[in-house]
Amino acid sequence: MLRLHDGLKEIIKKVATTLPRDVEEALVAACEREPEDSPSRKALENILENVRTAKKNQLPLCQDTGTPVFYASVPKDLSFDTVGKSIYDAVRLATESIPLRPNAVDVLTEKNSGDNTGIAFPEVHFEQSEEGTLSIDVALRGAGCENAGMFYKLPDEGLKAERDLDGVRRCVLDAIYRIQGRACPPYTVGVGIAGTRLTAVRLSRKALMRKLDDESGVGAIRELERRLLAGINRLGIGVMGFGGNCTALGVKINHAHRHTGSYFVDVSVACWANRRGRLVW
Amino acid sequence: MTGKPAINIKIPISKETARGLRVGQYVLLNGIVLTARDKVHKYLFSKRPDAGAMPFSLEGGVIYHCGPIIRQSPEGARVIAAGPTTSARMQMYEPFIIEHYNVRGIMGKGGMSGAVANAMKESGCVYFHAIGGAGALLAQRIKKVSGVWLLEEFGPAEAMWAFEVEDFPAVVTIDSQGNSMHRQIEDLSRQRLEEILISG
Fold first, then answer.
1. What is the interface size between A and B, counted as CB pairs within 8 Å?
2. Nearest residue, CB atoms, B185 vs list A227, A236, A272
3. Closest residue in chain A to residue B4, using alpha carbons only
4. At what angle do helices A165-179 and B181-199 cross, to 10 degrees?
5. Cβ neighbours of A234 in B, within 8 Å
6. pLDDT of amino acid A212
7. Phi and psi torsions of B89, nearest 5°
8. Domains (ranges, CATH) in chain B?
9. pLDDT one-digit tens code per residue, B170-187
10. Does residue A248 surpass a pLDDT of 70?
11. How would residue A146 be classed by pLDDT, with cut points 50, 70 and 90?
12. Nearest to A54 among B24, B67, B136 (CB)
């Protein structure tokens, strides 16, 4: 019988070496829209060739194979501890076999652990599931886009952002304007709206796991997602920050109830290589 | 690739060639590029080794901000993925390095500060923006690893690797005339942002 860590190792390899189909299709469509000979078009042509090369050679798309992030939805008969141990084992094995770049550094000694494991590294989130199957979503978060994330506390006088969806809109546009091309656009943009800082960040990061065609089921949020995508693409930042009309592939907003006194907005971005996948066990 | 041909650049680059490049041009680099990220930059800046103390010459050279994935084997080092890293982290060291070592090209992603652009203008150097995230493709354009320096000290992602590249794609985004695509795009997007905030 295949062991869980082998299954996990395979999904990590798939996520490191291939793009989700929806992202690849969106990049192909974007490439066709950019004017020939424009730097943005050249960048997209190279990106698409990179996608083919990585898939063919079964090698990582990007040398920054990131912080591995796992969202495990665990059935009642399995302990979080068992799943957690398999995840750590899988990351060690995958680092050696794919290979992944060792990215885990001890904050005190500055020593690299060499196998992508350490304190709270990889990042693992657990939830109990009513289903009989174990489901684990995997993302590889490169430092360039993790570093680019922005956090807002509303109201924000400078942005004229009040505690409403127009305020959220202003925050997201401000974030992408500030990030410019530094995190390898076209981006997938995740937004979290909540009343505690932790929840806002969790929501915005989790939003990056949604497929590009997965629009919010809530009308007002869906409208804002569409409006923000159009707005971001009007900023003119373009692929790699080379200018043009393709700065983002999707905007995904997740929201929670908030405390009467608090209103937080967190903006997470994924680079064009939004490396995500799912293992169902 | 269709349309306008890419500009072929041979490394080492002469000062005249560097001075002739302009923002927005798509180039293909050929020759040796030397990787350097945070630790090598700090080392060059603080120790200032002279040419005799280094295995490679930076004269007319291209420094590449890159922390590659390398697989070591008995046959030698194999490059698995080698895309650019964020250049902004190196910008406090770069003006000195450009001027002191006569570097003609800095390659990375995300662009660099006005101070670096000024140093480029002063000494005749340009910024090549590589294709971020294209690690697999760019590794294919590295035909040979011709040496490594400071590997023991800094490890494989931070060492200085000499990569022999062929048709390595990049876009000039800061030239030696004081033009910066990053500044142009930032100005444009600020204008657009103001319009979008008003009109929706």
1. 161
2. A236
3. A37
4. 170
5. 192, 195-196
6. 98
7. -65, -20
8. 7-199 (3.20.130.10)
9. 999 999 999 999 999 999
10. yes
11. very high
12. B136
Query: Measuring CA to CA, how many Å separate B40 from each of A66, B15, B49, B51, B77?
Result: 22, 24, 11, 15, 19
> What percent helix, strand, coil does chain A show, rounded to 5?
40, 20, 35
Confidence bin at B70 (pLDDT 50/70/90): very high
Q: Where are the alpha helices (H) located in chain A, listed in sequence order? A: 4-17, 21-33, 39-57, 80-97, 143-148, 165-179, 197-207, 219-234
The tokens describing A88, both together, are 């750590």
Contact A46 B71 (CB under 8 A): no
Residue B1 has pLDDT above 50, yes or no: no
Q: Is A104 on the interface with B (CB under 8 A)?
A: no
pLDDT tens sequence across A188-241: 999 999 999 999 999 999 999 999 999 999 999 999 999 999 999 999 999 999
- Which backbone phi and psi does A177 adopt, to 5 degrees? -60, -45
Does residue B41 have an active-site annotation? yes
ipTM associated with this complex: 0.92
Interface membership of B60 toward A (CB under 8 Å): no
Domain ranges across chain A: 4-12+62-141, 144-273
